[in-house]
Known about the structure:
By secondary structure, the chain is of the alpha+beta class. It has 2 domains: 4-108, no CATH class; 121-204, no CATH class. Helices cover 19% and strands 43% of the residues. It contains 3 helices and 12 strands. Strands 1-3-4-6-5 form a 5-stranded mixed barrel. Strands 7-9-10-12-11 form a 5-stranded mixed beta barrel. The longest helix has 21 residues, at 4-24. Bound molecules: zinc ion.
Amino acid sequence: xxxxxxxxxxxxxxxxxxxxxxxxxxxxxxxxxxxxxxxxxxxxxxxxxxxxxxxxxxxxxxxxxxxxxxxxxxxxxxxxxxxxxxxxxxxxxxxxxxxxxxxxxxxxxxxxxxxxxxxxxxxxxxxxxxxxxxxxxxxxxxxxxxxxxxxxxxxxxxxxxxxxxxxxxxxxxxxxxxxxxxxxxxxxxxxxxxxxxxxxxxxxx
Length: 205
Ligand SMILES: [Zn+2]
């Protein structure tokens, strides 16, 4: 009888490992929205779009707000697939790797390995809060007039005077320290740029 224990142990280890791997990529359903800057540099939200020069966010039915990143080719397909049909916005079903925490979630589609693109940089601009409205299937970008760490969990992005927009990611500690900053304009963040022209991430550190 004794010989069976090492086998069970080995099987147990194996199944735990494979579970972790399948758990890595998951399916998230939800509505997508485009957050982009207009000619005056004001951040606006489009629920219906086929082009998006800023960031695409996924309002997951799991109750998380994700910025969405993938290869430029795949992101183009996702934009095309987001059109409404007869006035009804179909929820999308996206497969990807989710990373982050309550105050900064991202989903990477399988076509993107964000580790491939890492450019250290300084970004100066205005930090905006992005509040999800799951019932309405949209988001509300806002320049906070004080610390926002007491507000419901939400996402952030920074917009620059040059018209660039970056989703903010980082450790919970780093994101919270941004949330506790009372002034949101003319802020300089150091970090690493990830992803591509179809949606940049600034990983602050
Ligand atoms: Zn905020």
